[in-house]
């Protein structure tokens, strides 16, 4: 909990979303009034509005009465002391009354401290202050994740579902929160757009959507797209978008040559089209201007009112829109080149224009600039440092940077320390931070031209002066910081010649750059991002303030989890001509959009399409597009009555898809997520494949006065009322229900309330054989429960088996087609703590025994059993092997022999460990057992009876271990993405933590492991250690007790550490690859394969 600015309250929570509240005070109201002296009672409330005049008038009378009462009290005390010696029982009774703790009358209080606490007025009025809390914002939180289940998304088009049948579409549903914050969390790793319609348009290379003319006074976002221009091999196609999309035969747009750019100017009043040979300005269906180019245009970009066009020969021209009134009084305009041109030597590779609304590119005014670290607050017209700090004064801090980090000047820093020290004492000046005022200042837009030259220099020119303001040498090297090379060198009036700029030598890194884009994202474009798309990577930089240089800013590289195997190769075919291949190579793959689903960001086309979003909070989110939608040839935002806030894109099959983002998901998170509130505590969730529904077990809590006690023969329910102020214990009431993934709500009439005091300990979707009227395996919902009465009463539980059947839905309620059908529900001899299936049989952990049951005619028939150790809470099975996890005694491996109907112990871990969860690891024909421990460790065990340390197979060998630092409470495994060129089959073991994390463990080949292990060892010296933790030491297995198996086994790579290799500068990448004796391409290939194998959900 944290108070902010005296009006806001921040509540951080681990069980729910963190909230930012606005606190307002209501009017005070009088609670009660006392007219007589207090006798034998104490009023612990504080009087807020005491009458000052009444106190002054009664001071003299109180002092006389206090003296008289003091003498009388001394005599009374002596008399009571004499009586207490004679009668001990009377002393005990007297201590039990509150009159012995305080005086019987407030007037008799002589101590000043007691007088301040209890007050001195005979008439006391108490007023209560009430507050109103208003929720301003919230931060998403999905922890703790108690259970997780895989399911199939329902809102998927048939075309997307049939794209790749071997890789089904999946989503994760997790149990999050507790109590009123309980919710089901739906997680998806990739973005799956909702397909509205699609149609084939072969031969299209690129496309742009153009807004229609917006009426004056309307906002830019209210306009709808009126035209769609498609680039073809030998021309352009113009489509008019309205209720229908139709081709326009006669329009003012040029259709004879391929279009390389189309957009809007003049607040969407004008439309501009740039082809390879000309520029055309259109307004309201009429052509205003046509400019013939002397060279072939390759790129173009717009920042209203400027247009930049770059040629293939390395020249650029910047034109500005000039608006004027025509002869008929209508608004008209023309494009005119700027007075100053862009220097064309060295040749230009990429160029783009940017309209800045953040104010970062505007240097502060030197006249109004303040000394860094000095207070701007004034007191009666005098400076703070000259006058000193006086009580009651209010000081303002205009910049939070000065408040947090201080300044460069020593006196100013000492002033900050003095103000902070004096704030601890009463009577010091009250500080008011006005850091938020700068966000209310209207920022005047400025215009800038970004240029990347052949020699690798990045230059920023101001428009329209065309003055060089920022210079970065070797900008495409992937450096972490892009600093201004002109910080210490003043800019001459005549500019800088070619030799000072680094000559015309060709830069290898710059030659790989394929695109340059600068955008302002987030609220009011405050997050300025610069994207440089190279052949093998996409570098994202953000601008931030810096006290030196001409523009007072720098660029820092953003660490994003971008795909390791990113390739910007154009989607070309060997049959393309030279002109067509050149057009496809120059297609802009980074497309800015202002409003798609309520977000603004950048869509990255290509073979691995991604969406880069920046929310109002300013956090950069990178989401991959689902694999069934890739690759994407081109993209364009599209806003229409039939598709509001949607977008268009071409896939590899030349199909134009009109899509929109799913509205039920929030994309302002690491993964697209949706929280479905339950107002109850979710415990278990599982997906039923046959009915395509989720089975959920949750509970509600309420205080209770009832409890059970043992009366010698049987339990007896009693109730004890201890008053309203007594904190009664809470009792959990469990229920089972079905959840629909279509509407994400509970299916009506499917809620089943369990008995009082009955707790659900496990939920499993089991496949059992039925030998009655049917045969084969069928999926059932099995539930294990326990009656928690008290520690004096023996625990017993039930096994409940449900079948989900299809019924005729009720009228107007299509979700009621699924119902529960109870097949079995009987009490067992002990608590049922774990359930699973093996070879069509149900296996359960009841007390300290494990039983195998056969479902026959809606009854369970015992088959075999075995004794276990302390408390079995997890069981897994594969074929005839059963893996058992004990709370304190680690794991054991059991085997069921169907011929002999025997269940026997094969091997177990001899050490003591608290196991949270476990799962199998499958690598071709090798089977391992992955467990998570209470101390935040992951350990991998294997059964190897040939090994010497296994004692003939009696002991499971710990092959590898890893310290995760979080408690893993749920695991599941899924088949890795198929690779047609490889026969290596493996499973990915996914896990979720109590801190809301999602991760995976993947078995890799020995060659890949050796290469990445050497990379990990070298990366320890190249990367900054997070929170001062050495990666090698922190990831070592940790245990509070000495284990039997010796020291840590290691053998697990830190994927997060190895993934940082992709964000390092190119020189460091090459240096690391040389140190470990390999190539950069091989390391990137290994990381790409890992990313591809685990690209699920």
UniProtKB/TrEMBL annotation:
Region (Disordered): 49-94
GO terms under cellular component: nucleus
Domain RSE1/DDB1/CPSF1 C-terminal: 733-1061
Occurrences of domain RSE1/DDB1/CPSF1 second beta-propeller (ranges): 193-660
Regions crossing the membrane: none
Biased composition (Low complexity): 53-83
Top-level division of the source organism's lineage: Eukaryota
InterPro entries registered for this protein in UniProt: Beta-prop_RSE1/DDB1/CPSF1_2nd, RSE1/DDB1/CFT1, RSE1/DDB1/CPSF1_C, WD40/YVTN_repeat-like_dom_sf
An annotated Gene Ontology molecular function: nucleic acid binding
Protein name: Cleavage and polyadenylation specificity factor subunit 1
Species name: Spodoptera littoralis (Egyptian cotton leafworm)
